[in-house]
């Protein structure tokens, strides 16, 4: 079967930028800019057609690789600033710092 098209997104928050690449199974995220402050974490969210954010995990390093199959063209990726350990609930509690839709290369 043909390989799925690679999807990309550039989440640009000014001094903080996340570059995302999704190959159908793994989402690679590179951070350019400062790490989250003491007692805080960046958290990655996927927002589909239903508009409900779903956590994909925490972004603590300059590069993260996350296994997922729940992404497709048009899904928006967003990064919020959360308390250390991530949002205490199912939705973001901190400010959204950057967001962008996944698009085909």
Summarize the structure.
By secondary structure, this protein is mainly β.
Biggest β-sheet: strands ordered side by side in the sheet:
6-3-2-1-9
Number of helices: 0
Order of helices and strands: EEEEEEEEE
Distance from first to last alpha carbon: 19 Å
Mean pLDDT: 94
Q: Detail the poorly predicted runs.
A: none
How much helical structure, as a percent, in the residues?
A: under 10%
Number of strands: 9
The main sheet comes to:
5 strands, antiparallel
Structural class: mainly beta
Please tell me what the overall shape is.
Answer: globular
Return Rg in Å. Answer: 13 Å
**% residues in beta strands:** over 45%
Describe it.
The protein has strands at 7-12, 17-22, 26-32, 40-47, 53-59, 63-67, 76-83, 96-101, 103-104. The protein contains no helices and nine strands. The radius of gyration is 13 Å and the shape is globular. It has 105 residues and is an all-beta fold. Strands 6-3-2-1-9 form a five-stranded antiparallel β-sheet, with no helix packed on it.
């Amino acid at each position: 079967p043909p390989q799925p098209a690679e999807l990309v997104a550039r989440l640009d928050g000014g001094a903080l930028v996340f570059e995302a690449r999704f190959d159908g199974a793994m989402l690679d995220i590179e951070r350019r800019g400062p790490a989250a402050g003491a007692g805080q974490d960046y958290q990655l969210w996927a927002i589909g057609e239903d508009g409900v954010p779903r956590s994909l995990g925490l972004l603590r390093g300059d590069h993260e690789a996350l296994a997922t199959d729940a992404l497709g063209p048009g899904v928006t990726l967003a990064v919020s600033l959360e308390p250390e350990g991530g949002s205490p609930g199912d939705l973001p509690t901190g400010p959204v710092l950057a967001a962008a839709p996944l698009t085909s290369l």
